[in-house]
Amino acid sequence: MFICSSLLITVSALIGLDLAENKALATLPLALQFIAVMTCSIPASLAMGRWGRRNGFLFAACIGIAGACLALLAIYAGSLWIFCIATFCFGSFTAFGNYYRFTAPEIVSAEKKNVAISWVMAGGVIAAFIGPNLARWSQNMLEISIYAGAFVVVIGVYLLSLLTVTFMDLPTPAPSKQGASTGRSLSQIMAQPVFIVACLCATLGYATMNLVMTATPLAMHSHEMAFSDTAFVIQWHVVAMFAPSFVTGNLINFFGISKVLLAGAFLCLLCVIVNLTGESVWHFWSALVLLGLGWNFLFVGGTTLLTECYTEAEKSKTQAANDFIVFSTVSVTALSSGVLHHYLGWSVINLSVLPFIVLCGVSALWLVTQKDKTPVEISVK
Asked: 62 or 219: which carries more pLDDT confidence?
């Protein structure tokens, strides 16, 4: 999943720029990918709650393969709208794939769940090297476009995903009993202060990352930087997003979730400062590395905190609600990124994320004040 995501981040906005008559729509295909994640998150969670994680992941891989075929057709036909349908398919795959991070803590003991979530997220480190490099190495695979070969590669990656999931041993959902309790109402769960902090940090951390990251290839293109430089910057951004996952779970165990969330907000602030001080390749590189680190602490920390908010019976609806909120916001930022860059410029994009960062920092500071209480006690309060 992460290999395809990092590859698509590298090429989607540039393909959109080529295919769109109105260049402000360059990030529309990438935005639709996140809109698909948003709209499919709830059905994906409920479907896997009924039919099992394994069947859901297999179905998603088939959707991803169909999307890659449509992307090739879109490039051949020069159609932005077919490419938009393709990216919607990619987002549908990701809506299911996002639940890998929730599947991990379901199959390990309670004391290992923080580390399990982190290690699943750490798969993105491999993706960081493979995804953008596949985009670069496949440039001359097909003559119709330098970007077309990337989607031949994507088909292969989705097939590998399909094969891997086929042999995964995942628990099947217990048979549902008529009249069985489904726990508290969703409104009660979402009213918990801990749910609010977890969802807020994951949502705004992702929104900050997505708004800046999506516009970066466009900003570099406007400065006539080589595609290889863009691939290099995105590659190390994705490394920074996922490399901390090898230790984020242990950091949460040692320092506490609140301090990890606070560190994530501070790193995002440093990213904005670097972006506002220069526009060289190394400014883009260092800023996106800081952005990736900040996203990791906010998203992994938020995900870990969320697991304290629900019981087993409440799992599917709580995870679905969280991911719907996260990716609703991410969709808006992906779509607005191209418009903001086209009409207002790179500096405005960076300034626009400052309120998000401040809210993450404030919520993390509030959680620090509750350090002597367990998440359950905070929720009851």
From this structure: 62
For 160-174, the pLDDT digits (tens) are 989 988 888 877 766
Region of 173 please: left (phi>0), alpha (psi -120 to 50) or beta: beta
CB-CB contact of 288 with 240 (8 Å): yes
Nearest of 314, 356, 238, 326 to residue 39 by alpha carbon = 326
Q: How far apart are CA 131 and CA 322, in angstroms?
A: 27
CA distance 162 to 312: 27
pLDDT tens across 61-108, in order?
999 999 999 999 998 888 889 999 999 999 999 999 888 878 887 888
Question: For residues 157 and 136, what is the distance between their CA atoms, to the nearest angstrom?
Answer: 16
Cβ contact 87:33 at 8 Å? yes
Ordered by start, the domain boundaries in the chain are 2-170+186-380
Which residue from 323, 196, 300, 289 is spatially nearest to 252, judged by alpha carbons? 300
pLDDT > 90 in the chain, percent? 26
**CA-to-CA distance for 290 and 308, rounded, in angstroms?**
28
Please say whether the beta carbons of 60 and 48 come within 8 A: no
Classify domain 2-170+186-380 by CATH architecture.
Up-down Bundle (1.20)
- H-helix segments, the chain: 2-19, 28-51, 53-77, 80-97, 100-106, 113-121, 123-137, 148-166, 186-190, 193-222, 227-242, 245-255, 257-275, 281-306, 315-343, 346-352, 354-369, 375-380
CB 213 within 8 A of CB 321: no
Q: How far apart are CA 16 and CA 218, in angstroms?
A: 10
Compute the distance between CA of residue 210 and CA of residue 222 in angstroms, rounded to an integer. 19
pTM of the model: 0.71
Neighbours of 313 (CB within 10 A): 13
Listed in sequence order, the residues at least 6 apart from 226 whose beta carbon sits closer than 8 Å to its beta carbon are none
Residue among 273, 269, 247, 270 nearest 260 (CA)? 247
